[in-house]
Specification:
Two copies of one chain form a homodimer. The first copy, chain A, has 14 helices and ten strands. Chain A is α/β, with parallel strands linked by helices. Chain A folds into two domains: about 220 residues, 3-Layer(aba) Sandwich (Rossmann fold); about 90 residues, Rossmann fold, CATH 3.40.50.1100. In chain A, strands 1-2-10-7-8-9 form a six-stranded mixed beta sheet, sandwiched between helices. In chain A, strands 5-4-3-6 form a four-stranded parallel beta sheet, with helices on both faces. In chain A, β3, α5 and β4 form a beta-alpha-beta unit. In chain A, α3 crosses α8 and α8 packs across α9. Chain A starts with 7 loop residues before the first helix and ends with a helix. Chains A and B meet through α12 and α14 of A and α12 and α14 of B.
C-alpha cells in the first residue's frame, strides 16, 4: 500500500502534531441508541471538537507544517463551512492570515463563525461560479498556500487521528469494535480513519456514508473508478456536497473500505431528531449521516460494536428547530 | 462532620455500586466557553447519563440496596420528571415495579420517557394537590418503599459520584480545579458533590445555583436555617422547583458550600442558546443553571478551573426551539 497518499505512520505523526491543541473528543454510549439498533453502538462526537466539526484536525496538521515564509504569505481555502472554520481556527492559533472562499448560501452559523475566527471571507454563487478558480487565482496573486479540504496528505492524516482515538478509547472501556461508519464528502475523513484503523485492526470494517443524491463514493467503490455526482443533485447535508471522490482519497478508500452506504435526507432528519431526544447532542445534517445509516440498519451485522462518527454540529437554529419539531 | 447524613466513604461505596451500570459522563472543555468566561471552564455533561439527567445515579444506588422482599413490593416516588425517569430506569434494570407521582404539567418528554421505561404514572395538579400525600398513601397501601428525590442518604451519595468523577477526570487531563458550580433544587446533587470533593480537596469551593424565584438554599445558607420558597414563585427550570432545602441535604450544604448563586430565567435561556451554538449540547432549563452562573460571571474568581455541572437535558422540542431562536 505504499502507493497510497498516506500511511498509518502519517496519522500517528499527525496525532503527535495536534496533541494538546485539538480536542480528544469523547466516545459516548447511549442505551436508547444501542437498544434501537439492536447491538452496542458507540458514538465519536466531533461536535465537541474546536469549531464544532472534525475539520480542525486536518487543518491544524496542515497549517502547522508551513514554513515561516509560507505562514507570512497566508493561506487560502474553499469550503461550505466546516473546513472554513477549521482552517480559520488553526490559522488564528498559528498567527496566519486565512482567506476562505465560501458559497453565499452556506449556513449562516458557518459564515458567522468563520468570520468571528478572524478569516477573510469571499462568497461565490455555487450555481454559476467555480470556487476552485476563485481560490486558485487568489492564492496565485498573493503567493499564498491553498489548503484543500480533503485531497491533501496532511489533511487526510489529521482527520485520521479520529481513528486512533476510537481504538484507544474503545480499549479503555473494554469494547470490541466490529465496524466504523463515517460520513463522506470528498472522502478525507473516512479515508484517514480507515488508514489509522486497518493498520493494526484489519478485521474492523469501515463504511462510508453519503446522502443519496451525492453517492459518488458508493458508486465509485462499486465501479472501481471515480464517478461524479449527477447534475442537479440536492441534499440537506451541506457539508457532504463534494462532486466526486478525491484523487488522493479514492485510492485509499478503494483499498480499505468495506463498502459505501447511502442515506436519504429523511433518514438524516430522523437521526438529528433521535440525537436531540435520546442522545442530547446537537448534530448538523451532514454530521448525522453515519448515525442515520446505523439507525436505518444499513450496516451489515456481525460481531463487535458499531462506531458511528458524528462529524459535525454546525446547524442554523431555525433549521434545527424545524427538524426536531418533526 | 459525623452528624451529616453521608460521608465521603458513602459516596465511594455508591461509586462501586453504580460502576458499569451508570454512565461515566464526559468532562468536556470548549474554547468559546473558556474565552467567554475569561478562564478555563470544564463541563461535566450529565445529559449523557442514562435518562438524560444525573438522577439515575442516586436512584440506582437506592434501589439496588432494597431487599428482595422490598423489591417485590415495588417502589413509589414523586418527581417533576428527572428523578421519575431515573427511578423508572433503575427499577427496570432491577426488575422492580415503579409508580411515580408526577405533575400533570410536567414536560411531555419527561412523562413519555418515564412511561416508556415501564413505570406507572399518576398525575396530580401542582397547584391544588400534595404529591407527598398521594405518594405516601400509595406506598402505605401497597407496602412499597418511597424513594425520595433528595432527602435520602443513598440518593445523596449516588449523586455525589459526580464529584469523584470530576476529581478523577480533571486529574487525567492535568487540570487544577478551583471551584464547582452545580444546580440546586432540594440540594442532593450539590450536597453529594460537596461531600465527595471536600474530603480530599477541601480547597475547592462548591457553589449551589438556583433560579431567582427558588433561591431558598441561597437564602438558607445566608441565614443559617432552612428558608422556604415564597408563594407564587415561577421559573422555567421545572427541575429546580423544590419548596425548601432538605432536612438531610441542608446540614451538608451549610457545612460544605462556599455560597449560593442565583440566576434569572433569561440568564438560563441565554445559557441554553450558548450550549446549542458553541458547545453543541442539548441542555434543559434546570440543567443550564450552573452554566448560566458561569456565563454571567457570578462565581468569585480565583486560581484553578471552574467546573460547571450540566445536570440534565430533557426538554420538549417546542420549548427548545423557541429558546434557541432567541
Amino acid at each position: 500500500m505504499t502507493d497510497l497518499a498516506i500511511t498509518a505512520a502519517d496519522v500517528r505523526d499527525a496525532a503527535a502534531q495536534i496533541r494538546g491543541v485539538a480536542v480528544r473528543t469523547p466516545l459516548l454510549e447511549f442505551m436508547p441508541l444501542s437498544e434501537r439498533v439492536g447491538h452496542r453502538v458507540l458514538v465519536k462526537f466531533e461536535g465537541a471538537q474546536h469549531t464544532g466539526a472534525f475539520k480542525f484536525r486536518g487543518a491544524y496538521n496542515r497549517l502547522s507544517r508551513l514554513s515561516s515564509q509560507e505562514r507570512a504569505a497566508g493561506v487560502v481555502a474553499w469550503s461550505s463551512g466546516n473546513h472554513a472554520q477549521g482552517v480559520a481556527a488553526a490559522a488564528r492559533l498559528l498567527g496566519i492570515q486565512a482567506t476562505i472562499v465560501m458559497p453565499a448560501d452556506a449556513p449562516a452559523v458557518k459564515l458567522a463563525n468563520t468570520r468571528a475566527l478572524g478569516a477573510q471571507i469571499i462568497t461565490y454563487d455555487r450555481h454559476t461560479q467555480s470556487r476552485e478558480e476563485i481560490a486558485t487565482a487568489l492564492a496565485d496573486e498573493r503567493g499564498a498556500v491553498l489548503v484543500p479540504s480533503f485531497d491533501d496528505p496532511f489533511v487526510i492524516a489529521g482527520q485520521g487521528t479520529i481513528g486512533l482515538e476510537i481504538l484507544e478509547q474503545a480499549s479503555e472501556i473494554g469494547a470490541t469494535i466490529g465496524r466504523v461508519l463515517a460520513c463522506c464528502g470528498g472522502g478525507g475523513l473516512v479515508g484517514g480513519i480507515a488508514t489509522a484503523i486497518k493498520d493494526t485492526a484489519p478485521h474492523i470494517d469501515i463504511y462510508s456514508v453519503e446522502p443519496e443524491a451525492f453517492d459518488d463514493t458508493a458508486r465509485s467503490l462499486a465501479s472501481g473508478r471515480r464517478e461524479a455526482v449527477l447534475p442537479g443533485a440536492h441534499s440537506i447535508c451541506d457539508a457532504l456536497l463534494a462532486p466526486s471522490p478525491g484523487s488522493l482519497t479514492f485510492p485509499i478508500n478503494k483499498a480499505l473500505l468495506s463498502g459505501g452506504l447511502v442515506v436519504s435526507d429523511d433518514q438524516v432528519r430522523a437521526a438529528m431528531r433521535f440525537a436531540f431526544q435520546s442522545m442530547k447532542l446537537v448534530v448538523e445534517p451532514g454530521g448525522a449521516a453515519a448515525l442515520a445509516a446505523a439507525l436505518a440498519g444499513l450496516a451489515p451485522r456481525g460481531d463487535g460494536a458499531t462506531v458511528v462518527v458524528v462529524s459535525g454540529a454546525n446547524v442554523d437554529p431555525d433549521l434545527f428547530a424545524s427538524i426536531i419539531a418533526g
